[in-house]
Amino acid sequence: MDHSEQKRGEPVEGRVQGDEQVQQPQQQQQQPQQIQYFLNTRVTAIERSGRKDPIIRFDAQSNLPRFRTTQFRDIRRTHAEIARFQEYLINANPECIVPPLPPSVTSAGAGTEEDERRVRIGVQNWLDRICANPVLIRDEEMVHFIESDFGYSPSISRHAPATGLRRHAIKQLAPPPDNSPLATSRPTIKQFYLSTLDTASKLEKLSKTRRTLSAAELEFGNRIGGMGGPEHHLGMSNAFRKLGKCVEKIADYHTVQATAESASLGDHLHLAASSALIAKETLTTRQILMRELIHAESTSRKQLATVTRLKASSSINTQKVDEALALLEEQKTFETNLAAKVTRVTSNLEEEVQTWTRATSKELLHAMRDHARRNIEAERRLLAAFETVRPDIRSIDSSGGLSRLGRENLVRARSGSHLQARKGGPDTDPWSALPRASAAVTEREEPVKSGVARVVGGAEERVDARNAASLLSNF
Description:
Elements: H1 2-30, E1 39-47, E2 55-62, E3 71-78, H2 79-92, H3 113-131, H4 140-147, H5 164-172, H6 185-226, H7 234-311, H8 318-394, E4 414-415, E5 418-419, H9 437-440, E6 453-456, E7 459-462, H10 468-472
Antiparallel strand pairs: 1-2, 2-3, 4-5, 6-7
Helix pairs in contact: 6-7, 7-8
């Protein structure tokens, strides 16, 4: 009897387990999925009118509940309005490191296509970083910034906890006790800020020096070209004119290189320095909040001591006790809110510092790669310019212009009235492309310790300043 009941019960357990397995995915499907809020922007154009502030035109798309619609077309904001919005975000969100807004004009030159391209990319990157921050896109001011029809100005005025001389005086004090990883972040970021600013300043001096060199080369090229007029030798006259044009071309290349140097690396260094300054000031604001929390805790202890003293008094004044209790309750509420704020700011800034470090490293790496590539291209252009003038220098006379260097005793290969301008290997002379004399030497060469000398073909030849040039021509 029991055995038959067990057999009849086995499929019942199987059906129960199967029903439970069927109900589990149904319950999972019934659970509401968390909505992923987003805000996407795309810069469409930049309008400039003379020296006025440029107007940034962009589109926006979002599913945030506070917006009146999901798509916004042709939003127009001046660069100054975006700068005011950035300042508001910095003051209103101490738990976020707001990226710096790129300037409205780059070192590429106002009005050029390269300048417009760089400004457009910079503003787009700034908007992307703002929209990628879940705290900033939920700010109430973001709705006004996107939906305002005619101009924009922050509707709420927010200021930092301390400004001016008070903030400067607080910075001189020792930092409050801090056990979080952010304790060492501010000194590191400050050192990075100073180093980046110093590097940008030195790069500006280098660019100015390169432009000064370009002006000197331009004048030098004009003078060299002018020497071709009174020269009676046809080859020398042609060589002077071609060399003068070559030096002028090199001067133009140096000017372009100086501009590209400032645009490709200098602007990024200044932007990185601004970003480091914002990060440093954000961490300073956190330290000011921590000082306010310490002061609030001290005030709460004093209020509690006052209430305890009034209660222990022999003659209790009801009005004073009520006032003391109200002040204590108000101070406790303020302390609780401030402690929660400090905790929120600290926890969020730990992630923000890591994100800022990765973003800054990526931008600087990209800038240095672009700077190195542009420098390589500039040096290649310089070499190409020198290569174009080399045949003219070789065609000065039958010896390839070498007679002007005291090397007329060498035998030169000729092709018509010009030397063959060809490139040789490591065993050929780079000027004449002829085989080096050292490659044809079959006898042993021995250095002499008593004096610098060389034995070639059984004859001893002493090396001194007078015949060094002729000896070097054989190697």
